[in-house]
Design a protein that fits this description.
heterodimer, A: about 425 residues, alpha/beta, 9-stranded mixed sheet, two-stranded antiparallel ribbon, about 20% strand, B: alpha+beta, two-stranded antiparallel sheet, 1 helix, globular
């Protein structure tokens, strides 16, 4: 196989570290059947994020969103909330867009286009446009590049990614029982998250005994489809210092970094390696930290295998040992480096990556919104008792990594730290 | 005129501006499994693309494929999404 084209050094000047912050996070409920438009959901989530930041709508002068023809535009959300924007753009994109747009927001502020940017994703992912192989998308005629995937039954994310997962099992002996531990961990986390759509705790046996969707994916290896909107607000660290919430700083961002031949990455090996292999070469040098410095991860969990593959290719374990890593207990609350402490896409709700950034922001504030009692000072008194229905705050968390995923060939990521 | 066809209950459409796919399916219609090959470096590629992913040449030809290729990956889909499914997999 010929080698890919020359590789590019995309590391940035180190002074961008800690120069920008996430100052507000917000979301709607996670439901199936929201009973309202994506415009109404988006307005709700953006408003919540603005209030969380202690800002007024008029303080927001930049807006970014992502969608796949299934949502509304910043045009309507900003108008509904009475904002006058100095910049807005709605981009095409699903998973991995969150961190990428945070990077774009930083670039916009650096370039002087605007000062404070709200990034939202609004979707009726269950009651309107579903991501899987059913509904409006599967009814549309097959043309263009779809002639070579949808026609052959390669439509849903599970169908498209399954060969990568199967090849990882073949190359490294990864066992479905190991990877099922991702669902076990995330379901335990969700049971301590009052917002989560699925709060039930599952076992490895539950996952392995659930019906096959597309080998090696069982039903419980796949994420939920839900209706929800989510928002994060980015501004400079300088402005953030005077705001309401504890400071959460952005150390480094990677946006939609790819394997070669992303139109059909199976044409370029290794099949069992995902885009994190390339993204980590930007993420860790830019952030000035490595995997060992990370306290919590937000590794995208469209599927259990997705989480495992990304943790492996970003270097949280040796190549080929992702199955052992996720089965070791390290990714569960109380473990060395918990992943998706809200329950993620497998349990909390499907947002194309935004809820994992929201969760890590709250974790870094030491203010996970679990069921722990609120003290006289108005702050939640975390017990660090991770039994069902209890706490989900990670003790003394200082540094997080979000690992976004579009598909095996495209990844975004971000390191944040407590200020 | 675009080429239209029905396949497993789905409507397929190849736009007449899509010269790469039109050429690919013309070979298929003649029952030839031919892949696009770069006219400059000779590398095969699939699906059809508008330039060579290896050397960026715009020129290509459709070429016979040597037998004996390996299968690098597979899956079994229990929830096939095509409206008509002409096959059935044995259940374990």
């Amino acid at each position: 196989m010929p080698l890919p084209r020359q590789e590019v050094d995309a590391t940035t000047p180190k002074y961008l570290r800690d120069k920008y912050a996430i100052v507000g996070v917000g979301e709607t409920t996670y439901t199936r059947g929201s009973g309202r438009t994506t415009r109404a959901l988006g307005t709700w989530a953006v408003r919540n994020a603005v209030l969380d930041a202690g800002l007024k709508p008029s303080d927001i002068d930049g807006m970014l969103s992502y969608q796949g023809g299934d949502s509304t535009s910043g045009t309507f959300i900003s108008g509904d909330l009475g904002m006058r924007l100095n910049f807005y753009m709605d981009v095409m994109g699903g998973g991995s867009s969150t961190e990428a747009l945070i990077g774009i927001a930083i670039g916009l502020i650096e370039a002087g286009c605007c000062k404070t940017v709200a990034i939202f994703r609004s979707m009726n992912g269950y009651s309107q446009v579903r991501i899987g192989g059913t509904g409006a998308r599967s009814a549309a005629p097959v043309g263009g590049d779809m002639l070579h995937n949808r026609a052959y039954g390669w439509q849903s994310a599970g169908q498209s990614f399954a060969p990568t997962f199967m090849r990882h099992m073949y190359d490294y002996g990864t066992k479905p029982e190991q990877v099922a531990m991702v669902k076990v961990a995330h379901s335990h986390h969700a049971s301590n998250n009052p917002k989560a759509y699925y709060k039930k705790r599952f076992t490895v046996e539950d996952v392995i005994n659930s019906r096959f969707i597309c080998k090696p994916l069982h039903l419980l290896d796949c994420c939920v489809e839900t209706d929800n909107a989510t928002c994060v607000i980015v501004t400079s660290a300088e402005r953030a210092r005077d705001m309401k919430q504890p400071l959460v700083l952005i150390r480094g961002v990677v946006g939609r970094c790819n394997k070669p031949r992303l139109d059909m990455h199976y044409q370029h090996g290794p099949i069992s390696t995902v885009a994190g292999y390339y993204a980590r070469r930007i993420l860790w040098p830019n952030a000035g930290v490595g995997p060992d410095d990370i306290d919590i991860t937000g590794s995208y969990d469209a599927f259990t295998f997705t989480t495992m593959l990304q943790l492996e290719d970003y270097g949280f374990c040796k190549k080929g040992e992702g199955g052992e890593y996720v089965a070791s207990g390290a990714i569960q609350l109380g473990g060395r480096r918990p992943n998706n402490t809200s329950g993620g896409h497998l349990c909390e709700g499907y947002t194309h990556g935004m809820n994992m950034v929201i969760e890590n922001t709250r974790q870094l504030r030491h203010d996970a919104d679990d069921s722990c009692p609120i003290g006289a000072d108005g702050k939640r008194q975390h017990t660090f008792d991770y039994r069902e229905g209890g706490c989900r705050q990670v003790r003394n968390v200082e540094v997080s990594a979000n690992l976004g995923w579009a598909n095996p060939s495209t990844a975004s990521s971000m390191v944040m730290r407590r200020g | 005129m675009p080429i239209r066809a029905e396949y497993l209950g789905m409507g397929l459409s190849v736009d007449d501006l899509d010269i790469e796919n039109t050429e690919y399916f013309r070979h298929c219609a003649e029952h030839d499994f031919h892949l696009q090959a770069c006219a400059q470096c000779g590398q095969l590629r699939y699906p059809p693309t508008t330039a060579c992913p290896w050397c960026a040449s715009l020129e290509s030809v459709f070429s016979d494929v040597a037998p004996g290729l390996a299968l690098p990956q597979w899956t079994i889909d229990e929830t096939a999404t095509q409206p008509e499914k002409p096959w059935r997999y044995p259940q374990e």
